[in-house]
Specification:
three-stranded parallel sheet
Length: 211
């Protein structure tokens, strides 16, 4: 969704309790944080790998420094929403696919904005309405090794597991991430490699720069 699309949403009756501020980069938003008491940040993603990585890293930083701010991510489509939900090092209030109909997108945004004090137990709750298994520690480790260029036999040696086991972990990771090729898996692995390994403690937040 474009900035113009969000601006239109926030002129409708349902969004009148909220004031929208638009930011093109992190620096301008950080400056505004010093004098505007935001309660929610909506981060609108494109499907660029580097932007996903930067978004997730910033969301984690926001969780630490401004834990009372709600965090929402607008993903380009359901595939990206799944990637964000699985790879995020911080808990999110919600992930919404921009491929949803305008009516559904509006409904999901209103629902999330009314839940200012909550972090969803599962980041997919307002995306597809069901609980999805998260990547296991071993699956994350396999992805990190893959992003460093190791082959399946080399990863098996590093983890002291047999090759079939590593292939099974790789397959399970592909299912959970919603990708069906090594290219898609390496995309996710590259993002994961550049994110912190340890999740922060419980915090509240939201995310592009619409707040």
């Amino acid at each position: 969704m474009s900035a113009i699309g969000l601006e239109h949403f926030f002129t409708t009756v349902s969004f009148r309790p909220y004031q929208l501020h638009l930011f093109k980069n992190f620096d301008s938003f950080n400056t505004a944080l010093t004098y505007i008491p935001f309660f929610s940040v909506i981060y609108s993603l494109s499907d660029a790998r580097e932007e996903r990585r930067n978004c997730l890293a910033y969301m984690r930083e926001l969780a630490f420094k401004h834990g009372a701010i709600q965090r929402i991510i607008l993903a380009s489509d359901e595939v990206e929403a799944r990637l964000i939900g699985q790879l995020s090092p911080s808990r999110l209030h919600g992930i919404i696919s921009k491929s949803s109909s305008l009516v559904d997108l509006r409904r999901q945004l209103i629902t999330l904005l009314s839940e200012t004090g909550q972090v969803n137990s599962n980041a997919f709750t307002h995306w597809h309405g069901c609980h999805t298994r998260m990547l296991s520690p071993t699956e994350r480790t396999v992805l990190r090794y893959m992003s460093s260029g190791l082959s399946i036999p080399e990863i098996a040696e590093q983890l002291e597991r047999n090759i079939k086991t590593i292939r099974a972990h790789k397959y399970n990771a592909m299912l959970k991430l919603g990708v069906n090729s090594d290219v898609g898996l390496l995309d996710a692995a590259d993002i994961l490699r550049n994110l912190p390994m340890v999740k922060p403690r419980f915090a509240l937040w939201v995310a592009p720069f619409y707040s």
